[in-house]
Amino acid sequence: MTRYRRIAYISRARGLHGELVVVPLFRLPFHIWEGLRLWVVPPDHKLIRETKVCAARQSLDKLYLMLEAVSDPTTAQRLVGRYLLAREGDFEYEADEDNHRFLGLSVYDASAGFIGTVVEVRMGSAQLLLVVEGPHGEVLIPAVDEIIHDHDDSALHVSLPQGLLELNR
After folding, report:
1. Contact assessment for residue 121 and residue 128, using Cβ atoms and an 8 Å cutoff
2. pTM exceeding the 0.70 threshold for the entire prediction
């Protein structure tokens, strides 16, 4: 029986031709190539389930993919928040998936309410940073116990330090 592994999280749609911005779930260097077969989960009977990579490029900490079955921004947008799977034997990786357990979660601050959705997890100079996009723009939240008080399958509950939301304005 073939085994599959989640290798990336689709964080954004980009451009007019259905390009996707994905976050690798394993430490870089992340090897993905044209022709690699991928599966999209969770599946949706109206969307693609299996596809191939048409093009892949990397820029700093982001990976941009064009998939064979995605050629328009509407389809690409509907894939945001899903994961890409590959056959285990098709790639090499170093396990780092645990750091990405927060991807896609809603973030609520005790004072400010809804902050946004975690779209990326980055390694900062001192600790892991959660990249949250929402009504306050992009907010970088340190993933430390002093800030993150509780989380479940759909949400993070945080107490942001005073002034953190204003840093982006």
Report:
1. yes
2. no
Amino acid letter, residue 144: V
Kindly write down the DSSP assignment for every residue of 31-82, as one continuous string: ---TT-EEEEES--TTS-SEEEEEEEEEETTEEEEEETT--SHHHHHHHTT-
Q: Does domain 101-168 have CATH number 3.30.420.40?
A: no
Q: Which residues pair with 93 in a beta bridge?
A: none
CA distances to 52, 76, 139, 157, 160 from 153, in Å: 30, 24, 21, 12, 20
Rounded CA-CA distance 127/40 in Å is 30
Fold adopted by 4-95 = Elongation Factor Tu (Ef-tu); domain 3 (2.40.30)
Which of 11, 5, 21 has its CA nearest to residue 92?
Answer: 5
List the chain pLDDT tens, one digit each, 169 residues.
Answer: 678 888 888 989 999 999 999 877 765 445 678 889 999 998 878 888 999 999 998 876 678 999 999 999 999 999 998 989 888 777 655 545 556 678 889 999 999 999 999 988 876 655 678 889 999 999 999 888 889 888 888 899 999 998 888 876 6
